[in-house]
Amino acid sequence: MQSDLLFIRRKALAFIGCALFLAAMMGVVFIDVRWMNDGVHETSFTEIAQELMLLAIALLYFHGAYRQPAIRPTLILIGGFFTCMLIRELDFLFDELSHGSWVWFALATAAACVAIAVLQPKRAVKGLADLLRHPAWGMLCAGLLTILVFARLFGMRDLWQHLMLDGYNHTVKNMAEEGCELLGYSLCLLASLGYLYGDRAKAE
């Protein structure tokens, strides 16, 4: 019974910690909209928070690859994937070099990470299976689906133009979309921390 109580307490504390983190992220959106009075744009606190989380996630996986050679190729692949997402988020900076140049940087990153994984296919497969079996995969998957699917569809211009008719406000639409993305990135960060540094118990 004692071990069950400790387990429940640990999970409850983890839930509270996640809740506080998500509340803090919502506070970032509130600051942009209420205090900065400039909505959500490329240099807003919301966008910066997204980029910092992507950077943190990528570094976590690259550091994990250094620490865990048995699944290194997979962790490098995942780190590369989030690095490509970061490059996409920073497209406005790469546009200073040449419009759309972020694509080439992302492709170069992806090619390098894939090449490393291809050289060690058994470890890559083992690492992927390790991730998919881990309890953190569910949250990571939910975060990615929120970013790549839900936020994109929820932020469709036609949807918001139809909703607001002649009162269409791009800032409102942008805040809703970026808020969803912020939630997705938050889930990915929490899941990555849980996978790399949390309880390594595998799901049955």
Question: What would the keywords be for this entry?
Answer:
204 residues; mainly alpha
- Number of strand elements: 0
Our count of helices gives 9
Return the string of H and E elements: HHHHHHHHH
Strand content: under 5%
Biggest beta-sheet profile: none
Cα(first) to Cα(last) distance is 22 Å
Using only C-alpha atoms, the radius of gyration works out to 19 Å
**What is the SS-derived class?**
mainly alpha
| Oligomeric status | single chain
Helix content: over 70%
Q: pLDDT under 50 segments (min length 5)?
A: none
Taken from the alpha-carbon principal axes, the silhouette is globular
Mean pLDDT: 90
Could you write a compact summary of the structure shown?
The protein starts with a helix and ends in a 7-residue tail after the last helix.
